[in-house]
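Comment thread on ticket #2218

A.B. wrote:
> Attaching the input chain for the structure job we discussed in standup.
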Amino acid sequence: MTVLSRRHWMGATAGWTLAAPQGTAFAQSAPTGPVKIIVPYPPGAATDALARLLAQALEGAVGATFIVDNKGGGATQIGTKAVAAAAPDGQTLGFVDTAFVINPGLFGDALPYDTLRDFTPVSLMAKAPLVLVVHPSVQAQDIRAFVALAKASPGTLNYGSADMGSAPHLAGEQLARAAGIRINHIPYRGGGTVLSDLLAGHIQFGFTTVPTMLAHIRSGAMRALAVTSPSGLLAGVPTFADAGLAGVDARPLFGLVAPARTPAAVVSRLSDAAVNAVQKGPLRERLQEQGFTPLGLPAAAFQARIATEIAKWREVIRAGGIKPDA
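C.D. wrote:
> Ran it. Output below, let me know if you need it in another format.
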């Protein structure tokens, strides 16, 4: 364990008003001791980095110790299952990303937990736009030219992602459907290899988070054509919606969940603390500086978003005939 990415893919204080005295509700609703936040990735990925930022914010706001526990593997299933199986006492939480809402459509009944039944949403922290980048050898200066090129030479443009069913993979599926083009997806075993092959021109394009690719875009090693939602770090790059491809909207989400049946008072307090930290505290600026879009949505809004996202990605997976890695 360390104090204070599923291969799918990176301190503040907050205050609030309670009817009971400061600290009383949390102390009465959960045992004393450190609160563990399970991240279903190894250390160093985007999801892990965001979990650590949130842990710092919650530690200052709630007055308890928060520990990030990395449990990677199994396409995030190992760590996520550990959250579902934990005692619902407020001392074990999970920090999840888009894999959480993609996996139900990808794995179906083979998933070792029920995403809607076995968890209590706490707060949706942030989202991150994906950017479509091409190697400079690709003769397309904008997204419309890219689509025209793909239509002129079907099946000749290749892109990669760190896993079948990852957010970048499904963004490509959305692009193929929205633009009516045929492109080839190549699954890799890790995002680092995808980046290396993209920079070398072994694959022609890819979808990545903005911070991952920003330096390469600015150096000219990669050309950014479109983003799935506006990015302050790429102000001159249009969105897919601007280009008439509104169906391309893959945006990794990051949020905090608890095991089902965690006491409502604990969930409410944690949700309030997380929302305040993201919406009002220094954490908001940290997120924006790193290319994320702060959300800070409360538990009920996060729960509704989970259901909507599961349905959306299930349809994309069904339409694309996508199967998980064997």
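A.B. wrote:
> Thanks. Noting for the ticket: The first helix runs from residue 24 to 29.
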